[in-house]
Amino acid sequence: MNSSLDSKNNQLNLHKPRNITAVLVVCLVLLVICVFVSLVFGSRPVRLNELIDGLFHPGVDSFGANVVRKRISRTIFGLFCGAALGVSGALMQAVTRNPIADPSILGVNTGASLFVVCGIAFLNISTANQYIWLALAGAAITAVFVFGIGSMGRGGATPLKLILAGAATSAALSSLITAIMISRTYVMDQFRFWQVGSVGSATWNSIATFAPFLTIGILIAIISAPALNALALGDEMASGLGVRTGVLRLVAAFAAVLLCGAATALAGPIGFIGLLSAHTIRLMLGPDLRFVIPLSAISGAIILTVSDVIGRLIGNPGELEVGVVTAFIGAPLLIILAMRMKVRSL
C-alpha cells in the first residue's frame, strides 16, 4: 500500500518541495523571534538584564524578572494552543475536503463552549481537568452533528453545505449558551473571560494538562498524513490504494477534535488559527499533508503568539484578548476565500 501511495503522490506532484528547508528555517527563526517578543513586550516591557535574570537567575526577585517568569508559562501555553489549532484546522480541511474548514467556522468551538457552560452551571466544575473532558465531548458531538447535516442531500458534504451547517449550529448553540447564562450571574462571571479566548491565565498546571493531548493529537495527524493525501483523490481512488476511508476519517477527525477540544477547554474558543496557518503553509509548499501538518503546527504557534503580543500592546495598560485579535485577522481572509470559491464555481 505504501508503494501505491508513493507512486500516486508522485503523479500528483506531491513530492518533497524544493523550498521545504528554506520554509522550515524561516518558520523556526520566526518562532524564536516570537518567543523573544512575547517575553519582552506587554503592558510593561522588560529590559535585557531583566530578561536574563528571569530566565537564568531564579534567585533574583526583582519585578522585571518576575514578569518574565510569568510570561514564560503564558508563551509556552500560547505556542501549544497555536500548534494544536493549526494542526486541527489542517486535519478538518483534509477530512472534509473543504479548504476553508476551521474549528470556529464549523461550530466545533461553540459546541465545546456549550458543554463547559453546562458544566459550570449544573455540575459546579472549576478546574482545567474538568473543563477539558467536557469540552472534548462537546466538540466531538458538534463535529459529528455538523458533518451529518452537511452530508445530507445531493452532492454529500460540499464546502458550502458544511459552512452553512456549521454557521447554523453555532448560532443555535450560542443561543443556548446565552439562555443558560442569563439567569445565572455567577456562571456569566466565570464564563465571560473564558469565552473570548485568552492565554493570559496560563499556568504550569494547565500546560501539563494540555501536553498529553497535544502530543497524541499531533502524532496521529502526522501518521495519518500519507493516507489523507490519498483521500484527496476521492474515496474510490483511495480505497483502490488500500486506504480504509471510513476508519481514516474517524481517526483523523478524532485527532482534530482532541486538539481543538483541549485547546478550547483551557484557552477558550480562539478562532481562525487553523484557517490562517494551513493556508499560509499550502501557499508556500503545496497540498502535501506530510509537510502541511507539521508546519501548520509551527505557523499556528507563530500566529497565536504574535496575536497575543498585539493584543497586549493595543490594550495597554490592560490587554485585548487574543481571540478578538485572531477574529480581526481571520474574518477578512475567510471572506476573500469564500469570494474566490464563489467565482470559481460560477
TrEMBL record:
Pfam families: FecCD (PF01032)
UniProt topology in membrane: Multi-pass membrane protein
GO cellular component, one term: plasma membrane
Keywords (A to Z) from UniProt: Cell membrane, Membrane, Transmembrane, Transmembrane helix, Transport
CDD domains the record matches: TM_ABC_iron-siderophores_like
GO biological process: siderophore-iron import into cell
A single GO molecular function term of this UniProt record: transmembrane transporter activity
UniProt keyword annotation of Transport present: yes
Record's subcellular location: Cell membrane
TM ranges: 20-41, 76-94, 106-125, 132-150, 162-182, 203-227, 247-277, 289-310, 322-339
Keyword Membrane: yes
Family membership noted in the UniProt record: Belongs to the binding-protein-dependent transport system permease family. FecCD subfamily.
Protein name (database record): Iron ABC transporter
Biological classification of the source: Bacteria, Bacillati, Bacillota, Bacilli, Bacillales
